[in-house]
Design brief:
Its main location: membrane. This protein is of the alpha+beta class. The chain is built from 13 helices and 13 strands. A hairpin with a 4-residue loop joins strand 6 and strand 7.
Length: 480
C-alpha cells in the first residue's frame, strides 16, 4: 500500500475518475438539451381522456401528453394548491392548447395534471386537429363542421384556399368555439400521420422555427432575428478582437523586454480576463455608448439631436464590449503559440539578413496562426453565450429591423438587435406559462448550442488547415 501510494498510482486513478465524471456530466447535459429541444417540435398525438370526476360522473379531456411522474401534483381546479388526497402511482401532465382568448368564466389552464387512477379510457381520434393561429394561439380539438383536408397544410406557404365559412371547433377543454379561417396559419391532424409524415412535419417545423420571426411575446414563432443578430455580433467582434489581440501578443513576446512594466501589463491582462462580464457591460455602457457615442452624435449627427444615433446601445457597442471582454483570451493563446516556436528559426532568419519585422511577418506569425485561431475559437465560444453585458449595450427583446438589410447603407451598426442568449433568458424566465416556456427554452438552447458548434467548427477547420500547411513548411526547412 505504501509503495502504491509513493508510486503515484492513486493520483492517476483520481485524475482518471475526475475526467470520467466530467465527461459523463457533459454527455448528460448535451443529451438533455438535444432530447428536450428536439421533443419541442415533434408532432405528438392528441389523446382523449375519459376521466372520472369527484362527483362520480365523467369528463372528457383532450390534449398532448407531456410527461408522467409519480407523486402528488397540482390539482386541475386550483393550480396554486396541492391536493393531499392525490397519492397515486402516476400523475399525467396534459397540454390542452391555449385558452386565454376565451371568456374568463369558461377558460381553464393550458397545462393540467390528471390522476392516472381516475382515467377510465384513452383514445386517439383520427379527426383530432391542431391549429396554429397567426396571433400565436395553439388550438387542439375536433372540427364539427369544415371541409379541411386531413393533411399538413401551411396556409402561408401553399396555395390552398381554406373554406370561407368559419369552422366550428370542439376545443380540448370541451367548449365549442368558432374559428375564422383567415386566422389559421397552419393545421394538421397529428393522429392520422404515419411515421414518415411526422418526420417530414418535424423537419418543416424546425425550418419554420429557424426562419420566422418571434411573436406573441416571444412565446410563438421562430428565432431568425436572434440567430442573425448573434452571428453578426460574433463576426464583428471577431474582426475587432483578432488584430488587437494578435498585435498585443506579438509586442509583448517579440519586442517588449523583461521589465517591471511588461510584467505589470501581463498581470493586467490576466486580471482583465477575470472581470465579471456584467461589470464590463457597465463599462461599455458608460464609455462606449455615452462618451464615444455621444461625441460621434455631436460631430456627425448634430442635426438629429437630442434624438441619439450612436449615443444609445447598439450592435457596434455590443461588439466592442465583447471584444474587450475576450481580448485577454486571444492575447494569452497567441503568446503561448509564439513561445512554442524554436528560437533557431528566428536566428536563421536574422543570419540571412532579414530584419526583426520581416522575421515576425514571414516566419513567426504564420507558424503561430494555429494558436491565434485557438484564441479566436475560445473568444467566439464565450462571446456567443454571454448575456449580462449585452443587456446593457444593445440587445433587446424584440428588434423590428435587422442590423443588415437592403436599406442604404445596408449595414446599420447603430441598431439594437436580438441575441439567442437573451432570447433564451426572456423565454425561460419572463413567461407566465412555465411548462411551455421550459420546452421552448430547450429548443432555443439547442439552436444556440448548434450555432456555437458551427462557428467553432469553422474556426477549427481553418486552424487545422494552417497547422498542416506550416508543418510541411517547417519540415522542409529542417530538411534543408
Amino acid at each position: 500500500m505504501k509503495q502504491w501510494w509513493q508510486h503515484g498510482s492513486l493520483w492517476v486513478w483520481f485524475s482518471a475518475s475526475a475526467l470520467l465524471c466530467t465527461l459523463l456530466l457533459f454527455i448528460a447535459l448535451i443529451s438533455l438539451i438535444v432530447g428536450k429541444g428536439l421533443q419541442h417540435h415533434w408532432p405528438a398525438d392528441l389523446i382523449t381522456f375519459q376521466v372520472q370526476t369527484a362527483e362520480g360522473g365523467r369528463a372528457t379531456v383532450m390534449g398532448q401528453l407531456i410527461k408522467q411522474e409519480p407523486g402528488n401534483h397540482y390539482t386541475t381546479d386550483n393550480q396554486s394548491e396541492i391536493d393531499p388526497s392525490l397519492n397515486t402511482a402516476q400523475q399525467l401532465l396534459i397540454d390542452q392548447g391555449d385558452t386565454w382568448f376565451m371568456p374568463s368564466q369558461g377558460a381553464t389552464a393550458r397545462y393540467i395534471w390528471l390522476d392516472d387512477g381516475n382515467v377510465l379510457q384513452r383514445s386517439k381520434p383520427a379527426d383530432a386537429i391542431r391549429l396554429d393561429m397567426h396571433d400565436g394561439r395553439v388550438l387542439f380539438g375536433v372540427l364539427q363542421s369544415s371541409d379541411a383536408e386531413p393533411a399538413i397544410v401551411d396556409t402561408q406557404q401553399t396555395a390552398i384556399d381554406l373554406p370561407g365559412e368559419p369552422w366550428l371547433l370542439l376545443h380540448a377543454n370541451g367548449q365549442e368555439i368558432q374559428v375564422d379561417t383567415g386566422d389559421v396559419k397552419r393545421y394538421h391532424f397529428p393522429n392520422s400521420l404515419n411515421g414518415l409524415q411526422k418526420s417530414l412535419l418535424f423537419l418543416k417545423q424546425w425550418w419554420w422555427f429557424l426562419t420566422e420571426d418571434p411573436h406573441h411575446q416571444s412565446t410563438a414563432g421562430g428565432v431568425f432575428p436572434a440567430i442573425f443578430g448573434t452571428m453578426v455580433m460574433v463576426l464583428l467582434m471577431s474582426v475587432i478582437v483578432t488584430p488587437f489581440g494578435v498585435l498585443a501578443a506579438i509586442y509583448l513576446h517579440e519586442y517588449a523586454g523583461k521589465s517591471w512594466l511588461t510584467q505589470v501589463v501581463r498581470v493586467s491582462v490576466y486580471n482583465l480576463a477575470g472581470i465579471p462580464s456584467v461589470v464590463m457591460g457597465l463599462f461599455g455602457l458608460a464609455f462606449f455608448v455615452y462618451v464615444l457615442g455621444g461625441q460621434l452624435d455631436q460631430l456627425f449627427y448634430a442635426d438629429q439631436l437630442p434624438a441619439p444615433t450612436y449615443g444609445t446601445p447598439g450592435l457596434f457597442w455590443a461588439s466592442l464590449t465583447l471584444a474587450l471582454l475576450t481580448l485577454p483570451v486571444v492575447i494569452v493563446a497567441t503568446e503561448e503559440g509564439l513561445a512554442q516556436l524554436p528560437m533557431s528559426q528566428r536566428l536563421g532568419s536574422y543570419a540571412l539578413g532579414a530584419t526583426q519585422t520581416e522575421t515576425i511577418w514571414r516566419i513567426v506569425a504564420p507558424q503561430a496562426a494555429p494558436a491565434m485561431m485557438t484564441g479566436l475559437i475560445l473568444a467566439v465560444a464565450r462571446a456567443a453565450g454571454e448575456v449580462a453585458p449585452l443587456m446593457l449595450v444593445g440587445v433587446v427583446k424584440s428588434a423590428p429591423q435587422l442590423p443588415i438589410d437592403g436599406e442604404f447603407p445596408y449595414v446599420h451598426l447603430e441598431r439594437q438587435f436580438m441575441h439567442l442568449g437573451y432570447h433564451l433568458y426572456d423565454v425561460g424566465f419572463q413567461s407566465a406559462n412555465t411548462e411551455h416556456a421550459m420546452s421552448l427554452s430547450f429548443a432555443v438552447a439547442l439552436v444556440l448550442l448548434m450555432l456555437i458548434v458551427l462557428l467553432n467548427l469553422s474556426a477549427f477547420m481553418l486552424r487545422q488547415h494552417l497547422r498542416r500547411k506550416y508543418k510541411l513548411v517547417q519540415t522542409s526547412m529542417e530538411g534543408v
